[in-house]
Design a protein that fits this description.
By secondary structure, the chain is α/β, with parallel strands linked by helices. The protein has two domains: 120 residues, Beta-Lactamase (2-Layer Sandwich); 209 residues, 3-Layer(aba) Sandwich (Rossmann fold). Helices cover 37% and strands 22% of the residues.
Length: 389
């Protein structure tokens, strides 16, 4: 191709083709519209039942015919971008984002169960959430002021990890003049350029995989790197190196508490490499936060969280693989902004946002929670502590 303009046109055509978003079929469009209208978070398409939506944590079936696998595949597969459709046909599962109607964005997981197609579709907000609207302790804001290091946000599926990270990025974007690169599969929250410059890389469209995208990102002089999820050792290794060499790196993991979040990283590597990884982790890790969503008193859901701001003591425990001491380290480092899950639960109860029995059922350290609840009806006398104020 002799004419450079022809080459430019070809590149533009390829990029446009890669980013072309297929339209959802009419029935799927209808179900997604109902999901939005009823304020639901998820649409479930499973053979043997009608389309079902989750509203404030409760599953509701729509007044629609019962689905079979062919119905589901016929509605969802045409709505996927080419790379995701190919993944489903080859591997039996696919993750992608789709648009439906003006401004409607959704995250889609198309998979198979009992030999039939099934889908889980999450409604995505039109704008990134504001951190102060999530109901998290105000101390979380300190994560946006870290100059560098690796910040891990853990929690089970559906606990709001991605939402929290998006809110942290939004705050940095609006407050600071920085270069932010996000790497996601798929992109869930679209950030406009505020004071910062924000680049958003989507796996399958802009890069083939997380390690490739991350290696490229660190060469782009970013201040902040967001990794949608650390799924493999290579991504974790590059993230550790980036956090240690001057970047602020935010990522999520499917875990239940601070200790399991930290151990998930080292356990991803072979036994002979784990001592080296723990050493790198002790130098790169800046903070670990975990959260879950709980039934809110009066309806809806509310997050409870714990936060470890990593200091000298925590780094020593990481090097020695004495992770059982990290919970104690949270209480020791309260002045740095750390707080325990039980302190978060107690504050929610004291604020009338969480039922006391729900808090007791969710506590990891029950005795600690009971001490914090002293003075409330049904708990004894005395006073608890406050966090994040």
């Amino acid at each position: 191709m002799d004419d450079p303009h022809d080459l430019d046109r070809l590149v533009d055509e390829l990029n446009a083709s890669a980013r072309e978003r297929p339209q959802a079929p009419p029935r799927l469009e209808k179900w997604l519209r109902v999901l939005r209208e009823q304020g639901g978070s998820d649409l479930y398409l499973v053979a043997g039942v009608p389309p079902s939506i989750r509203v404030h944590g409760v599953i509701r079936r729509l007044a629609e015919p019962i689905l079979d696998g062919e119905d589901i595949e016929a509605q969802v597969l045409p709505a996927l971008p080419p790379h995701a459709a190919a993944s489903y046909r080859t591997h039996g599962h696919a993750d992608a984002s789709l648009r439906s109607g003006p401004g409607g964005r959704f995250r889609v997981n198309l998979h198979r169960e009992r030999g039939r197609a099934a889908a889980s579709i999450r409604a995505l907000p039109l704008h990134p959430p504001r951190l102060d609207q999530l109901g998290l302790p105000p101390a979380i804001e300190a994560l946006t002021r870290l100059p560098h290091g690796l910040v891990l946000v853990g929690g089970p599926t559906g606990s709001g990890k991605t939402t929290t990270v998006a809110a942290l990025v939004d705050l940095i974007n609006r407050r600071d003049a920085r270069h932010i690169v996000t790497i996601e599969d798929p992109i869930e929250f679209e950030h406009v350029h505020e004071r910062s410059v924000v680049e958003q890389v989507e796996i399958g469209i802009d890069a083939p995989d997380f390690p490739t995208a991350l290696r490229s990102a660190v060469r782009q002089s970013p201040d902040v790197i967001v990794i949608g999820e650390m799924r493999d050792p290579e991504t974790m290794r590059i993230a550790l190196a980036a956090g240690e060499t001057g970047h602020l790196v935010l990522s999520t993991l499917h875990t239940s508490d601070v200790t399991s979040t930290v151990s998930r990283v080292s356990d991803a590597f072979s036994a002979e490499r784990q001592p080296t990884i723990r050493q790198e982790l002790s130098m790169a890790l800046a903070a670990v936060m975990t959260q879950i969503l709980l039934p809110r008193a009066g309806g809806g859901r509310i997050p409870a969280a714990e936060l470890l701001m990593v200091g000298y003591g925590a780094r020593q425990h990481l090097r020695k693989n004495a992770l059982q001491h990290l919970h104690q380290e949270i209480t020791i480092s309260r002045k740095s902004g750390s707080f325990t899950f039980e302190e978060s639960l107690a504050q929610l109860v004291r604020g009338g946002l969480l039922d006391i029995d729900e808090a007791r059922a969710r506590a990891i350290h029950r005795d600690e929670l009971e001490g914090l609840l002293v003075g409330l009806p049904g708990s004894g006398g005395g006073h608890g502590s406050r966090i994040g104020s």
